[in-house]
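Thread amino acids onto this structure.
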């Protein structure tokens, strides 16, 4: 548990580092866009300001998500991290659509730019986003993944600007900037779509695909006194923490002390599968029959 707390602490700290890098570089882009007359760099500056706001929200949401449970949020605040991932995903989605729209317009009427200035900004952009991405690559979590997509989008964008600026030093093919922008946006959209679907399924309380329930069930069934497991319900608190509820059928003559001991052993198995929260109900043969008969009625 101590390791996880430290890990999460570094995760929020790395997001804050990414925010300052992104916001600071957005200011440089505005100046650079003016000096190079590059609409692409202007657009990326506005996009980076939007990213910076998303990163700042991610930082506070990540910090909040590690608060202990209380009477208001009895499962804790982990879902705030997922909420941040959802908002970041929507921002990325809208940002990518905006980039595609702007790039499509520029295909029809490309403008002359300063390739030397674009080249310098591209190198700086690659260095800044690579460093931020490296810091975040050490962390896990859906929120951090969405932040990584922000940085990946920017990094690929600057690689495209670098390639285009090199070509423009020799050939006036300004339309290449727009074509590469559209391709990069489509790649980012694919990754964002997958993660938005995953976030949506968490909010809809779908049984987590990552939870290897059959393997977990087999381990529990091997325990002494366990005759059956049924009425299984489960969902994700966040992308790495699960809740599970199920009924365990035990022999009718089982004493309460044996049930308590069995519950402890089951809980130990659940922890191995990241099931942090669980509710286990024990039934005897007759008790189980009575419940099933009530369900039929």
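Threaded sequence (297 positions):
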């Amino acid at each position: 548990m101590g390791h996880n707390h430290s890990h999460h602490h570094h995760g929020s700290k790395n997001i804050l580092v990414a925010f300052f890098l992104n916001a600071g570089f957005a200011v440089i882009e505005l100046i650079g866009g003016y000096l190079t007359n590059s609409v692409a760099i202007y657009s990326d500056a506005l996009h980076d300001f939007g990213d910076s706001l998303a990163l700042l929200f991610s930082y506070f949401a990540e910090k909040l998500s590690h608060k202990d449970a209380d009477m208001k949020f009895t499962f804790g605040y982990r879902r705030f991290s997922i909420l941040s991932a959802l908002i970041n995903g929507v921002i990325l989605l809208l940002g990518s659509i905006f980039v595609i729209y702007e790039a499509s317009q520029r295909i029809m009427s490309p403008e002359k730019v300063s390739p030397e200035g674009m080249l310098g900004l591209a190198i700086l952009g690659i260095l800044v986003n690579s460093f931020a991405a490296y810091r975040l690559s050490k962390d896990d979590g859906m929120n951090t993944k969405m932040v990584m997509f922000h940085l990946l989008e920017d990094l690929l964008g600057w690689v495209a600007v670098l390639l285009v600026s090199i070509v423009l030093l020799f050939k006036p093919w300004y339309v290449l900037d727009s074509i590469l922008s559209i391709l990069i946006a489509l790649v980012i959209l694919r990754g964002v779509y997958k993660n938005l679907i995953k976030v949506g399924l968490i909010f809809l309380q779908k049984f987590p695909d990552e939870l290897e329930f059959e393997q977990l069930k087999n381990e529990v069934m091997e325990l002494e006194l366990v005759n059956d497991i049924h009425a299984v319900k489960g969902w994700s608190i966040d992308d790495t923490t699960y809740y599970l509820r199920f009924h365990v059928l035990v022999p009718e003559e089982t004493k309460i002390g044996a049930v308590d001991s069995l519950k402890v052993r089951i809980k130990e198995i659940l922890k191995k599968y990241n099931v942090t929260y669980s509710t286990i109900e024990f039934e005897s043969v007759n008790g189980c029959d009575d419940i099933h008969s009530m369900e039929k009625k």
